[in-house]
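Table S2 (text version). Query chain:
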Amino acid sequence: MLNEKKRLPVPFILMVFLSSCATILNKPVQKVFITTDRNLKLISIDTTVVTDSLHSSNHSVQRSNRSLVIRVQTDSIEKSLRLQPTKSFAYWFNIPENYGIGMLIDKNSNKRYGYPVRNYLSLKDTTIHISRFAPVEKGAINLCLAPTLINGYDVKAAGKKYYTGGVFGMEAGLEYFFRRNQYLSFHAGAATSVFGEYIGAGSYEIANATFASIRRNYIIGSFDLGYGVNFSQLTWKRIYNDSAKKSELVKNPGAGLSLSAQYRLGNYFRLGFLYQPVLFNLNSKPSTGYQHFLSFNFVWKIPMKVSASKI
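Corresponding structure-token output:
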């Protein structure tokens, strides 16, 4: 019994060591991407002189709790700024993974820290500002594909309102930048609640949506926010298991608002939320009424034309 008790701390200590997420998951070095506006020239990152490009650098740096010194030049003046480290995602992941026990192992390790991966430097007046992404210039065009992760419906049905959800859908469109960080988007899409339907006694119900929209969008930091109008057809259908009974169908063409919010994951990918209330009915009375289609999307933006200032 005594020997068994002495062995108990060994697997416990091993478990705690293996639970230190930052120590295990983070490498001693990380990549840092830095780009500058055209009125700035990148000179050095930390102690490394930048020689391959004056306006951009892909650099490997040691993780540390000290700030990273970046030197740039504007006209004939050199300026320095500091990139501050933060506690990495892997360090905070100790909380859901092992109730924070791993933080004790990571506490004295430089692997707990990380620098912002993407950094864009711009000069405003005499101050250098750091943002996550470079602005998109006028004239750029993107092809946008957005498969649905989950969608929801509020649809007018036969004598009732029908609420349901689903996972199948697709939105596609084009984006044209008419100003820096502002663009018009033209989209069309379709979605269905198949496999999310309500199963009734001897029948089941589904909802479908087809739509087109035009929106004005603004890029603000890591977010794309847009507003506009949509033209939609929301459809409710009840299908009977008895082939002798005829299916019921209600079509609801209408128009309303189109509101979009997207969070930028990188240069090409975003997570998006689309909310499209239908406020005007085009084939039924009363002419006004509320229905909606909403969806959470994975958004892929494919550059079709780069702005002239970047060529």
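Notes on Table S2: Residues 9-18 form the longest helix (10 residues). The CA atoms of residues 215 and 291 lie 19 Å apart.
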